[in-house]
Amino acid sequence: MRFAPSPTGSLHVGGARTALYNWLVAKKGQLDFPGEDAGFIIRVEDTDLARSTKESEESVLADLRWLGLNWDEGPGVDGERGPYRQSERGELYQKVAKKLLDDGMAYPCFCTQEELEEMKAKQEAEGIPPRYDGTWRDADPELVKQKMEEGAPYTIRFKVPAGARVVIEDAVRGTVSWDAESTVGDFILLRSNGVPVYNFCVAVDDSTMGVTTVIRAEEHLTNTLRQGLILDALGAPRPRYAHCSLILGEDKQKLSKRHGATSCNQFRLDGFLPDAMINYLALLGWNDGTDNEIFTRDELIDAFDVDRVVKSPSIFDMDKLKWINSQHLKMMSIEEVADLVREQMDSLGLLKEGADGVGARNAIFASTALAKQMMETTQDAATNAQTVLGYGLPDSFDKIDDLEQKEMIQVGHFYPIAQALLRDFEAETLPQPDPADPLAPFLEDINKPIEEDNKVGGTAYSYPKAYKVHMKNLSKELGVKGKNLFHPLRLALTGEMSGQDVTKQMALLAMASEEDTCIDTEKAGVVTMKARMDHLKAFCETIPEEFRAPKPKENKKKAKAEEKSSEPSTEAKAAATPAVADPLDTYEGPPITALDIRVGRITKVWEHPDADKLFCEEVDVGEDEPRQIASGLRPYMNAEDMEGRMVLVLSNLKARKMVGFPSHGMVLCASNEDHTEVKFVSPPVDAKVGERVTIPGFDFEGEEGQPFAENKIGKKKIFEKLAPFLVTNEFGTPEFLGRPFLTSAGVCTSPVGGGNVA
With a threshold of 0.70, does the pTM exceed it? Predict the structure, then answer.
């Protein structure tokens, strides 16, 4: 196998995929036939002297090394098939051209440029496809000798045999054939200055290097005609060919710079992993016949087969690449990812120049651990650290743009909680990270790194535990708990409404606030705890009096009696009651009809053998065979209680493997905010298995009401965008924008009020 880049620019996605496919076939051949002559060659096709540069060659080779596509022979790795640059193989091309001349399969052509242009113009005027007319093909040998003696410039042309046809069995495109004589005419092998043309070099190189299979882009398909004719004339076997379709952008146009990053080096700089890149590149035109989309390098070598490369063009999907990259990141430990995160932090200037030692290692470890579960690229960890070290609380209440922030403050709990934090900070009773144990929030008691977002580290006497105790006491003091406590706390301490565990964020901030910190505080935009408290104090002074305390709760019985006694007439009610705003009026997300939620019945449940939080389920959703679905319900339910249950199933999620188990769909559950209570969302007992759940006010019948395809649901993150609006009301009824989930038998229910549906 060979990959033959032209050193005229960077290695882009298409070239990288071509290199990968060739590399995979070569590696598989080496494993399947040990000791046989199998290998991967890099051959630099630098015959375009005007555009080829040494810098481009080095760039392409560096990108191949980054991808891990190491070659058995090529530049820097000598072997019996060298040299490996076409510019260094000129003597061989001259020798082969002379052999073709001597064998009568090529001839000198003395046509001038003017004569060739006149020939072309005449053919075009007559409606004939332009091609060389064979003027010197059968010229008088004496005339040829005379021209040679005169020193007239000439090219060497290939003599296309009369009636010649070239037929190949392309591994991707099937049978492809050309009428050589009418298609190309006698074509040039050597220019008048002795420089060989591209197709001649390729055919000679493939022959002399023993290339048996050529995988390349479809734009090279037409070159196969000339190369096949030359190989036949040399008596050399033709390689097997596989011409892969183009890679397109999401607008269905050929992928180019206007679609964003397309060079491998840019993907490296943006924080993508080489293993994730080759995983994704392999899927741009190939699959293994299963629904699996995550492959290790060894798994790709074992599974790849050129016969499964598809003919249709592939669409480059950045969201899909990021998802695959995130899956590979999740398979790595924090320590393995940390070095890559350091590169990103250096790139953004977050670390002081030459930062090293324990402090730097701790800050990089903390930045990595904070973002480990949410990052799609290693760059995400660096930008997340920047967000954590900054403080996004607005200067005043009037300057709040985030509606969620403003509404939370207006409830009235934020102000008293902020005042308590300010009081405790000034009294130095607010727990702070321990400088002697800066990584406590990130490590379990046995000093193992915490990989999951929902776990807090530290020993019994460490900062995370002290923080938890303090906030528990604050909850009792103020008589507030749940989201009414934690949302204001998070906003006051971090300046954000959401994010990772607060103690972990504060620990990273403490590292960045030390006098000898490795963090470049100016470039990172560090806002210390003292500066945050000063900012918070000034902000609180701008909160209107009406929002500085929660509204008192009325005696419900008394209020109800008063309401009944003073209840106005129906006419007065209608006149006085303002219209309630419909949340649909301001909703801008995907349509709820995009989801295919069906009534299902769980028929079988068993524990996942390799994951202690997963159940494996068979669910009847009205199809020929039950769906197999994996769900993280083991901490919340018993298998015996699940079997036979009627449930709701999101059915148009693409099948994927969950710790090796092929899962196709998601059983919908309702949960409270801290995820301590998780229960099924249940259809009525008389609902029909397989029927689609609907929402009042939306058309689920027409063309626009059809659910989205599985690929679109995943790639466009449709469910993620709809999820914030899928909730249960105070009575546990699942709703979308205040409208209930409906079946033919009535409204769906759940035991969890005021929760989320997912």
Answer: yes
